[in-house]
Amino acid sequence: MKKNLLALLILMVVTFGVKGAYSSGGPNNPPIANAEITGQVNDNATGESLAGVIVAIEGTDQTTYTDLDGNFKFKGMLPGKYNLVFSYISYNKSLVENLDITESEKEIIEVKLQETK
């Protein structure tokens, strides 16, 4: 009897543990934050990559900068819609709206900033 109860308990733990690990969300299983937004920022006129551009997710405190090759990355994103704001000295601000990110997706965008005249 004790062996049967132990086997049943192990089966229940394994079954519910596997279900939770692969769930895409719900009231008891929140969505997994493993989506990414990556991209590159270039000068609109020359096509050269821009290093040090501020990339911010609107409405949050999440901010990053482009690297020497103009690349940026946000990791660990929850599924949802995001607006990205790009700011750089001597360039017009740029807004990329309504990026619809789904679970496990890697969204790749290219942004071209226009120099201020």
Features:
7 strands, 1 helix, 3-stranded mixed β-sheet, alpha+beta
Q: In a nutshell, what does this entry contain?
A:
The chain is α+β, with helices and mostly antiparallel strands and 117 residues long. It is 17% helix and 40% strand. The protein has one helix at residues 2-21, and strands at 35-43, 54-57, 63-65, 71-77, 80-87, 94-101, 106-113.
Describe this structure in words.
This protein has a domain at 35-113: Immunoglobulin-like, CATH 2.60.40.1120. Helix content is 17%, strand content 40%. It has 1 helix and 7 strands. A 4-stranded antiparallel beta sheet has the order 3-2-5-6, with no helix packed on it. A hairpin with a 6-residue loop joins strand 5 (80-87) and strand 6 (94-101). The longest helix is centred in the first third of the chain and has 20 residues, at 2-21. It is elongated and about 50 Å long.
